[in-house]
């Protein structure tokens, strides 16, 4: 079965442009030419700018920041947003050159690094955005034994689920695990295909609004609230460090605006994604936007990798500097985070 076609959204200013590929080193020229959209002009045009293609996930509110990059651009770059359905697809797109950068899963990036896939976190994006939800008969984590429980493979939510089960003294083999994609959790829960799930938004808020209940917080384990970051491939970082820096700066500006002005951009997100504004607002209350790589946050990513190894999700945890590049983002943690 072929993969779903990505959706593309142009966010550009009317100025002469060249592709980032045209400025890249010859060794990665074909890769970058495939990932950037040129609207004409050459390398020597005065005032030429470049277009960066940024990937993100469809329909998940804490992944929305790239849609606001054009409005908060800190330099001459223009932005094209590409939406995909899964976190692994985003990392594949980075490595193939389909996108230049992406807001994506840190857990998927750790798993890839353990297999030698060179994608790195260059900034934070959002913490949280997760929930453990069940039907009214499930009041505690221990009650999950014998139940049909939905989970998202290679995700921070799956790591947290295993840690919560361990803490409650429940063997994961006692659960009937059901692997689902992020958009599938609410429908599976609402139609009775699963009894509970630990998954990302927006399925959590939809399920809570349809009679589900929060069983326990997924944020009290060793990995905390770690979830998503701004990603780039090693090739792109090496070829275009100035562009990476500009995107990180723009991401920080957009994220700061989003954190303080939700009422201004939420209607546009609802129009883009479709759905109920109150449900999106509830989902956003369950996430914490950030753009930094504070030392404690980087340590948390290292703990995530260590737990993934211990739980058998990867053979060996990669070194943190194989997952995180701290050259670009602020190291100051935002208020309310570590």
Characterize the structure shown.
The chain is α/β, with parallel strands linked by helices and 338 residues long. The protein folds into two domains: 7-129 and 225-322, D-Maltodextrin-Binding Protein, domain 2; 130-216, 3-Layer(aba) Sandwich (D-Maltodextrin-Binding Protein, domain 2), CATH 3.40.190. Helix content is 34%, strand content 21%. The protein contains eleven helices and 13 strands. The chain has helices at 29-35, 87-96, 106-113, 156-168, 185-190, 203-209, 234-239, 241-260, 262-273, 277-285, 295-310; strands at residues 7-11, 17-19, 49-57, 78-84, 101-105, 119-128, 130-134, 148-151, 176-179, 196-200, 213-216, 228-233, 287-289. The longest helix is centred in the last third of the chain and has 20 residues, at 241-260. It is globular, with a radius of gyration of 20 Å.
Defining traits:
alpha/beta; D-Maltodextrin-Binding Protein, domain 2; globular; eight-stranded mixed β-sheet; 338 residues; 34% helix; five-stranded mixed β-sheet; 2 domains
Strand content: 15-25%
Q: Averaging pLDDT over every residue, what do you get?
A: 88
**Uncertain parts:** 12-19, 21-48
The CATH topology of the largest domain corresponds to D-Maltodextrin-Binding Protein, domain 2
Share in helix:
25-40%
Rg calculated over all Cα atoms: 20 Å
Distance between the termini: 42 Å
Q: What is the count of β-strands?
A: 13
The number of domains is 2
Structural class: alpha/beta
Largest sheet: 8 strands, mixed
Please, how many helices?
A: 11
The topology string of helices and strands comes to EEHEEHEHEEEHEHEHEEHHHHEH
Question: How would you name the oligomeric state of the polypeptide chains in this document?
Answer: single chain
- The CATH superfamily title of the largest domain: Periplasmic binding protein-like II
Shape summary = globular
* Second-tier CATH architecture of the largest domain: 3-Layer(aba) Sandwich
């Amino acid at each position: 079965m072929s993969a779903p076609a990505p959706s593309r959204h142009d966010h550009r200013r009317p100025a002469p442009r060249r592709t980032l590929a045209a400025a890249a080193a010859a060794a990665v020229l074909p890769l970058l030419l495939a990932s950037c959209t040129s609207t004409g002009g050459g390398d020597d045009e005065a005032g030429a700018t470049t277009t960066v293609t940024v990937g993100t996930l469809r329909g998940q509110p804490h992944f929305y920041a790239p849609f606001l990059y054009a409005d908060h651009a800190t330099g001459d770059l223009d932005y094209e947003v590409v939406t995909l359905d899964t976190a692994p697809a985003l990392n594949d797109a980075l490595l193939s050159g389909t996108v230049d950068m992406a807001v994506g899963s840190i857990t998927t990036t750790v798993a890839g690094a353990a297999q030698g896939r060179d994608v790195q976190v260059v900034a934070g994006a959002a913490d949280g955005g997760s929930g453990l939800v069940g039907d009214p008969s499930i009041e505690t984590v221990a009650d999950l034994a014998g139940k049909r429980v939905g989970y998202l493979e290679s995700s921070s939510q799956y790591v947290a689920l295993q840690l919560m089960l361990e803490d409650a003294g429940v063997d994961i083999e006692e659960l009937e695990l059901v692997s689902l994609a992020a958009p599938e959790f609410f429908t599976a829960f609402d139609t009775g295909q699963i009894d509970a799930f630990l998954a990302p938004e927006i399925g959590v808020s939809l399920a809570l609004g349809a009679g589900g209940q929060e069983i326990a917080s997924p944020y009290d384990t060793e990995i905390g609230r770690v979830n998503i970051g701004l990603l780039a491939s090693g090739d792109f970082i090496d070829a275009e460090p100035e562009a990476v820096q500009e995107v990180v700066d723009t991401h920080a500006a957009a994220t700061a605006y989003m954190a303080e002005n939700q009422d201004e951009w939420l209607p546009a997100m609802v129009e883009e994604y479709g759905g109920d504004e109150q449900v999106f607002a509830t989902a956003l209350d369950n996430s914490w936007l950030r753009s930094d790589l504070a030392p404690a946050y980087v340590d948390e990513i290292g703990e995530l990798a260590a737990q993934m190894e211990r739980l058998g999700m990867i053979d060996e945890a990669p070194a943190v500097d194989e997952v995180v590049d701290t050259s670009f983002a602020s190291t100051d943690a935002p208020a309310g985070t570590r």
